Amino acid sequence: MKIVKKIAALVVCGFALTACVSEFGESPVKPVESGEVGFELCGEATRTSIDPDGVTTRWAEGDRMAVWAEDAAGNYTLENTTFRFHHYSDEFDHGYFVANIASMAEGDYTYMLAYPTPQSVSGTQATFSVPATQSGAYDGKYDIMIAEPAVAEALSAKRKVEINTVMRHQMHAVKITVPEGRNLYGTRFYRLEITFPNPVVGDITLDITNPDAEPVYSNMSNVVVLESAEGFDAGSVLWAFVLPGTVDGDVSYRVKGERRHSNVATYSLSKQMQKGRVTPINMAIPTIYPYYSAAIITVEQNNLGEEYNTVRIYDANGGLMGEYPRNDNGVYIVDYEGEFDCDQYDNTSWRVEFDSEHAIVSSYVAMGDMTDYTSHNYTTDVPYLFYEDFSALATFDGDYTGGPYTSTSNASIDGRDLSQYGIAAGWTGARTGCDAAGTAILVSGRTDYVIAGATRAYGRLESPALSAIKPDKDVKVKVTFDYGGSRSGGSWAYAVAKVGYTTTQGILNGYATQFNNNAAFSGIDGAIDVPDIPTSGSASALTLSMSYNIDVCTSLHRLSWHIGSLGTTFIGNGYQWMYIDNIKVQIVQ
Known about the structure:
Layout: E1 37-42, E2 49-50, E3 57-58, E4 64-70, E5 76-88, E6 95-99, E7 108-115, E8 120-122, E9 125-130, E10 133-134, E11 145-147, E12 150-153, E13 161-164, E14 167-169, E15 172-177, E16 189-195, E17 201-207, E18 216-221, E19 223-232, E20 237-242, E21 245-257, E22 260-262, E23 265-273, E24 278-282, E25 288-290, E26 295-302, E27 308-314, E28 320-325, E29 331-334, E30 349-356, E31 360-366, E32 377-382, E33 386-388, E34 416-417, E35 428-430, E36 432-433, E37 441-450, E38 453-462, E39 475-489, E40 494-502, E41 511-513, E42 525-529, E43 544-553, E44 558-566, E45 572-587
Parallel strand pairs: 1-13, 10-19, 15-24, 26-32
Antiparallel strand pairs: 1-6, 2-3, 4-5, 4-7, 5-6, 7-11, 7-12, 8-9, 9-17, 11-14, 15-20, 16-19, 16-21, 17-18, 21-23, 22-25, 26-29, 27-28, 27-30, 30-31, 33-45, 34-35, 35-38, 36-37, 37-38, 37-45, 38-41, 38-44, 39-43, 39-45, 40-42, 40-44
């Protein structure tokens, strides 16, 4: 029957793989061990290894057969007993099988044989597995056979017993030849995937008393994969064993090599796959393509403040996927010379690292659901040298007025690690809190005013160190942030705040001054006033922004915000706080 397009004819071959005498040479005749009994299999005993002629078969070293023996009273002396292949007769047409069992009682028995040994047995029902992935070789373990029941005498170590029967094939064999001169790879391919319109592999349950009984199928699949680490080349012959039945519809296949793959080629087929028969296929190779890029990453915007020189892309496990010099288009292609296993990267994040003269910064790309042999396009930006929008910050009532943990102390307050509230490690603060999750952080100051003067307690906030700066570099940076404010207490009080930096690491405590009518900031370098802090506002409505520079900034520098409260009254307390959000740091060239 001829099939359309490029695949060659799928023709039913009228011969069975029967036991023909071959010129292999005699298998070594090893002595039968003490206590072993055996039988010589005669007749049309089809075998499990194929001659280079593609037709003649023989038993192979390592073959195992399951044997049942029923006596005249209907009792089973042997049930699913494993016998191993031992040797050939001088004429090569008889195979000798042995097992280490006791000699049987005298008399005639009905013998039933199955090859290979079944996966499971229930009475006389034996279940075998026909796997979806096969080696492509003529492997006897895929070629299931059931013998016609045969009567012979008892097995005994004292004599050689002949069992004359016919082993009936239960499978259909597909013989696939890759034509000479038609392999367009230039290299071997190692995988052939065939998809049938109906299930052709799975588990098959057979009656060992009747090789012609209808089988029962389960755990079925319509995909057969022939795979070999050694690979297949022009002139190779591949074998696939499938369950018998009718194939009616589209059959498709695809081949894969180390550096190339094919399209899926689909053809129409209507055929009865008869057990014990062979379908030869003279395979044509579909259009061949190299494995293409798995990811195309385009850089759209540079927020760093200076040009990057090198891009490195890492997978979710930290594996380096590629390193590239900067190009004017900002396009970087991760390709793979070989099969790219997209499944392991589905819905993971890859890190894109940008290396400039003074810094190394990273962004992350969500890969989504990736598919084989397809280019996937992603976009990203070169990130800021440092950025924080507090979107991960949880609500917490800190040591400022307005919450259940409010401190009314006018003294110093110990600093705290703020990463416990969801933001990055390295953030620390004293008199800090968050009114609304994911919006802004606040830092608060307090004034206690008495006749003799004012006691002022200062709040502070410090960022992590700007570790994106290379350890051996210093650079001028610009810091921008949004802010707002509010107060509690008398209207006489107003906020004073400064921004700057510190190079002191770890948790830094708040501080206070006693009976001081003036602001007295400490522990902040390069301090600059923050102007016009509002007296009524909220974390979600920041109306002001500010920028300042740090002329010589290193990887040890931390950004600092400090706030206190000023004002004059006869007696009373006042609280001031500043909301801070959208912090951005860029290199100034």
